[in-house]
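User: I'm curious what two different proteins look like when written out as structure tokens. Can you demonstrate?

Assistant: Sure. I'll show them one after the other, since each token string lines up with its own sequence. Here's the first protein:
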Amino acid sequence: MSASASALPAPALQDGWFCLPLRVYYEDTDAAGIVYYANYLKYAERGRTEMLRHLGVNQTALKSESGLIFAVSECNIRYRLPARLDDRLLVRTKVAALGAARIEMVQEVLRDDARLTEIGVTVASMNEAGRPLRLPGPLRAVLENAFDEGEEGKAV
């Protein structure tokens, strides 16, 4: 069995990052076999969602209990290198800053040691009507404690 056919490691917190392993599938690529640019945003969304799940945050319960939902309010992405069919990727996510009703995150997509993309994302916490909603204390504590390295994860 080739290395590309082996199982992916489990998601984990590692060196201040939440790490989500992914594999590039045919559906992710364009006619040239290169990952279509918009799919990196999907990978980033999976990274953020799985990070919350890994930290014990159930978004469905959060919505039903407090009415809180998340929406991306800003996203910047820099493409450095392409990913290709069957590549094993690592989506790394960490909280850079917390506001009263926002979470700023830094994300990267890597293949081995090569950084393919750098992504900066601001996620707003709001109610279903789109009005800002403060991050609940327990959620804030989970996010601060998971990424408490120096200045990262601190309130702004």
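Here's a second, unrelated protein for contrast:
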Amino acid sequence: MTGPGDQRAVLWTLGADGGEGAAPAVDRVHAVVPGLSGVWLRVRLTDPGDSGPWDWHIHWGDRADTPQDVTYTGEFAFLRREPYTTYGPHTITVRATDPGGLTSATAAVIVQ
């Protein structure tokens, strides 16, 4: 029971629950190196309340690509057509930026 002099603290967090107004999340990254045909980079993007498009920054470990205006959410893949010219390991990092300028945390995977 509370009286007229009692106080309660309330902590508001904006976007921390992954809801509308939150930064996009890249929560799954998996690379497949099928030999001479390049590298398939499978990712999963979630961004509740935002319909994109998203700008990506992919650093393959030896070069960077920046696909623009990607409209896919959920699971999809990027293809690097050229195989690596040096033996691994190579760390691939990815992040996505939504139209409002919010950027996901960097996600990474290592390929051999």
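A detail about the second structure: The radius of gyration is 19 Å.
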